[in-house]
């Protein structure tokens, strides 16, 4: 595949193209193909036009036509409008990549503030899974790890120096 040579477009051309997407009823991809543009470039022009229009003006390219470019278009029905630059919480889950244990621990801490069902839905875990985790006794390995951590802390505390390393601690008392 050959790399397309970078082209420069005037501000007037970009504004006319954005207006064409908004008024024609065609998708961003269709307009991009018709004008021999990349969809990425056209979507960034739509995003920039929404930013340039300001917070009070209609932002973005009309919902279905802009393809949800970065969350800058109008909110979908039933979704709250978000401040400029905010992202949808579901889309950040891939970045967080937290395991269920971390999510369940967070729910356990926050359940006094928010309903458990809401927290579970937001974090993408089941309520039944949370309650099963909450009622489960800790695994034998976790208990052993905790005990070992306490023993190591005690050895460090009574050692010759509080910063004693493993070599100094492994030697018998002199």
Percentage of residues in helical conformation: 40-55%
Element order: H for helix, E for strand: HHHHHHHHH
CA gyration radius, whole angstroms: 28 Å
Spans where pLDDT lies below 50 across 5 or more residues = 59-72
Overall average residue pLDDT: 76
User: How far do the termini sit from each other?
Assistant: 72 Å
Query: Beta-sheet strand percentage?
Result: under 5%
Structural class: mainly alpha
- Identify the quaternary structure here: single chain
Description:
- The structure is a single chain.
- The protein is mainly alpha-helical and 174 residues long.
- The chain folds into 3 domains: 66 residues; 38 residues; 31 residues.
- The protein contains 9 helices and no strands.
- It is elongated.
Write the layout of secondary structure elements.
Elements: H1 11-24, H2 28-34, H3 39-53, H4 93-96, H5 100-110, H6 116-123, H7 127-135, H8 140-158, H9 166-170
Brief descriptors of the model:
about 170 residues, mainly alpha, 3 domains, 9 helices, about 55% helix
Please give a quick description of this structure.
The protein is an all-alpha fold. It has nine helices and no strands.
């Amino acid at each position: 595949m050959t790399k397309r040579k970078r082209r420069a477009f005037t501000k007037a051309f970009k504004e006319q193209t954005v207006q064409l997407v908004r008024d024609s009823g065609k998708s961003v991809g269709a307009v991009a193909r018709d004008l021999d543009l990349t969809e990425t470039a056209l979507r960034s022009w739509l995003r920039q036009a929404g930013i340039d229009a300001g917070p009070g003006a209609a932002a973005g390219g009309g919902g279905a036509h802009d393809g949800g470019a970065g969350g800058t278009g109008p909110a979908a029905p039933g979704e709250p409008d978000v401040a400029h630059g905010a992202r949808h919480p579901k889309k950040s889950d891939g970045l967080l990549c937290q395991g269920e244990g971390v999510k369940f621990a967070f729910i356990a801490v926050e359940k006094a503030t928010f309903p458990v069902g809401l927290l579970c839905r937001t974090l993408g875990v089941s309520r039944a899974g949370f309650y099963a985790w909450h009622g489960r006794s800790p695994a034998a390995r976790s208990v052993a790890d905790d005990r070992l951590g306490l023993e190591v802390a005690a050895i460090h505390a009574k050692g010759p120096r509080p910063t004693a390393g493993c070599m100094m601690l492994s030697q018998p008392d002199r």
